[in-house]
Design a protein that fits this description.
The chain contains 18 helices and 13 strands. With 440 residues, the chain is mainly alpha-helical. Strand 6 and strand 7 form a beta hairpin. Helix 16 crosses helix 18.
Length: 440
């Protein structure tokens, strides 16, 4: 382990909010796992080949050998659960009496996608959403996605009645938990976990949009990120398309959305870090202040993946540096590792008080629990390793099968499918998370 040294807490804090820091710090945890020095998990690398084979079967089942047809991981698929919704909405805008130009179409999609991602933290095993019109019922991420696009179309996030299909600070400032509950059909018989936390994210997003005109413009819309990115983009002389680095989008999101995270999150050097947590196993080996901190930035990563797709599709831009993006440390990707044996909880490592149903063998832990930190850190690195093994088994390069495609077609879906096989009553993960609506 060779920690990167910084001259001040402020420099450390700045580093922990970068994309490369996620892999580097999670890599430190993985190094401990290889030596059997984690506190909660044993690591079984020999099982990685089995996980990859399980994922390859899913890819071949759904895509055959047409690997180029695999879409990237992003919110678009959830918004289109059961039937297309995004493209018909675009066509509706284009057919309107005053159709938006291409850039405004993209702004509206970014408005929609960003707010939908922020609503996407785990809803629990019991909640469902029945779509008006189609009569289809959805749960989990798809349910949250379908509900969010309905809320968007109803103008719930817009403060401008003449432009209901947008998200702005004024509209978000009016959001309340009862409004979100009503829109998402939450009731005593249809409970959703993390409702208050989800609502707080939206209200805090209103404040963030107002506070960061550099990224979100004077009209305080997420969609104005397009104009910020455009200002720093480079025109490709060959075809006129614009090139923008992923770090530009990441920085805008990590800085611009900093005010939305709960005040209880980790701070360092006086800076609130967001989805960054101390790892007990690293703390024992820390050589400098902050060496024990591990960044995940899961919702920022999920937002980044989700915004890249509409920007590239609608505007024809090209993002560079996507190799710096990581796998997402959440319970589907992480659950795959536990359910297929790459990781195993050490017997007795978690206190009995964390097992609400001793017969299930499933602990329920808060996101801050040190076991969750180890699990998430291992998930980030293992997703890289399993993606490499999947490519090896399929005979593909990283360019032919990107990490974003692996997340979409294999690991996230695989985590859900193996959970349903092992726990058919709930389809829940092998470790339950006390979701506050802001992490998973």
């Amino acid at each position: 382990m060779n920690p990167i040294a910084f001259d001040s807490p402020e420099q450390t804090a700045a580093y922990l909010r970068t994309l490369p820091a996620i892999r580097e710090r999670c890599g430190r945890v993985h190094e401990l796992a290889q030596k059997g020095e984690l506190e909660y998990f044993d690591y079984h690398p020999g099982k990685e080949r089995d996980v990859a084979a399980f994922c390859v079967d899913i890819i071949k089942r759904d895509f055959g050998t047409n690997f180029a047809a695999i879409p990237p991981h992003g919110r678009w698929r959830h918004l289109d659960a059961g039937r297309p919704r995004v493209q018909p909405l675009i066509e509706k805008w284009k057919a309107s009496p005053n159709p938006p130009d291409t850039k405004e179409v993209c702004r509206r999609l970014i408005d929609l996608f960003l707010v939908s991602v922020l609503l996407d933290a785990g809803a629990g095993n019991a909640w469902t959403y029945k779509e008006d019109g189609s009569g289809q019922t959805f749960s989990r991420s798809e349910g949250l996605g379908v509900a969010s696009i309905a809320m968007f179309e109803q103008g719930l996030f817009s403060g401008d009645s003449s432009n209901p299909h947008q998200v702005d600070a004024e509209g978000l400032a009016r959001i309340t938990a009862p409004k979100v509950a009503a829109a998402m059909q939450v009731s005593d018989v249809n409970p959703m976990v993390g409702l208050e936390g989800r609502t707080s994210l939206l209200v805090n997003l209103s404040k963030a949009l107002k506070a960061n005109s550099t990224y979100f413009g004077d009209s305080a819309r997420p969609g104005n990120l397009v104009d910020f990115l455009d200002s720093g983009s480079i025109e490709d002389g060959a075809n006129g398309a614009r090139r923008v680095h992923i770090f530009a989008l990441w920085t805008a999101l990590i800085d611009g959305l900093a005010p939305i995270w709960p005040a209880t999150r980790t701070t360092f050097g006086g800076i609130s870090l967001g989805d960054v947590w101390p790892c007990e196993a690293l703390k024992k080996r820390a050589q400098a202040q902050g060496d024990e901190l591990v960044p995940f930035h899961k919702l920022t990563g999920w937002t980044t993946y989700s915004l890249v797709e509409p920007i590239e599709k609608v505007l024809g831009w090209k993002f560079e540096g996507l190799e710096h993006m990581t796998g997402l440390p959440e319970y589907r990707n992480g659950g795959l590792l536990l359910d297929l044996g790459v990781l195993s909880l050490r017997p007795g490592a978690i206190e009995k008080s964390f097992y609400p149903d001793p017969n299930s063998g499933i602990p329920k832990l808060p996101p801050s629990h040190p076991a969750i930190i180890e699990w998430r850190a291992m998930t980030v690195i293992e997703l890289d390793r399993i993606a490499d093994e999947i490519r090896k088994q399929l005979g593909l390069t990283r360019e032919q099968l990107t990490l974003a495609q692996v997340l979409e077609s294999a690991t996230w879906k695989g985590g859900r499918e193996i959970a349903k096989q092992k726990r058919p009553a709930t389809g829940g993960p092998p470790i339950d998370i006390e979701s506050d609506g802001t992490v998973f």
